[in-house]
Design brief:
The chain has 182 residues and is mostly helical. It has two domains: 9-44, Rubrerythrin, domain 2 (Single Sheet), CATH 2.20.28; 56-181, Up-down Bundle (Ferritin), CATH 1.20.1260.10. It has four helices and three strands; from the N terminus they run βββαααα. The longest helix is centred in the middle third of the chain and has 30 residues, at 56-85. It starts with 8 loop residues before the first strand and ends with a helix. The structure holds fe (ii) ion (2 copies). Residues 69, 102, 105, 143, 166, 170 line the site of one fe (ii) ion.
Length: 182
């Protein structure tokens, strides 16, 4: 039997900076959820990607975004644990992946702000999958609205791109929640 070997490469996501090994870039970054277009081959990575001179407005917007991401990470951690403890495998998988992505967004924002990532505080949530899905939807909706504003008023092209990517990613999440809400 002949096995056709497709060569793997290292790629990097320009939204979160994380590396990925594959034959081609993924449809969504496994770390931050960014779409294929944001991947570059690792040897073409620009080490200054997160070095942006921030205006006061940009700093304020990044700080607001960090607050949203940390809050959403706390919430999804709670929802993940509730699902796990009740044996809801789908809910566990869904909230765990959302928790990881939102945590990655917080990390990326901290790279722009040049600060270390604050600890994730314990969050509260419902004991019901459906209620947590509704709250997830509300949170993603708020994030999309905020990031659209931040994207539109950003004067730094790199931040415009970053907030634009976050809007796309959180819209994926919104669609995912909507599927379970019917
Ligand atoms: Fe990423
Ligand atoms: Fe996020």
């Amino acid at each position: 039997m002949v096995r056709v070997m497709t060569k793997v490469k290292v790629f990097r996501c320009r939204i979160c900076g994380d590396p990925y090994i594959g034959t081609e870039p993924p449809s969504r970054c496994p770390f931050c959820g960014a779409t294929t277009q944001y991947f570059v081959e690792a040897d073409k990575w620009d080490p200054q990607e997160f070095d942006v001179e921030l205006s006061d407005q940009a700093r304020e917007d990044l700080e607001a975004a960090l607050k949203l991401e940390l809050g959403n990470t706390s919430f999804y951690t709670c929802a993940e644990n509730v699902a796990k403890n009740s044996g809801d495998e789908y809910g566990f998988a869904k909230f765990k992946s959302l928790r990881k992505v939102e945590s990655e967004h917080a990390s990326a924002i901290c790279k722009f702000l040049k600060i270390s990532k604050p600890p994730i505080e314990a969050g509260t949530c419902s004991q019901e999958f459906k209620e947590n899905t509704q709250e997830g939807w509300d949170r993603e909706d708020r994030a999309i609205k905020a990031y659209s504003t931040f994207r539109d008023r950003a004067t730094e092209p790199r931040l415009k791109e970053f907030f634009g990517a976050l809007v796309e990613i959180e819209t994926d999440h919104l669609d995912l929640h909507a599927e379970s809400l019917g």
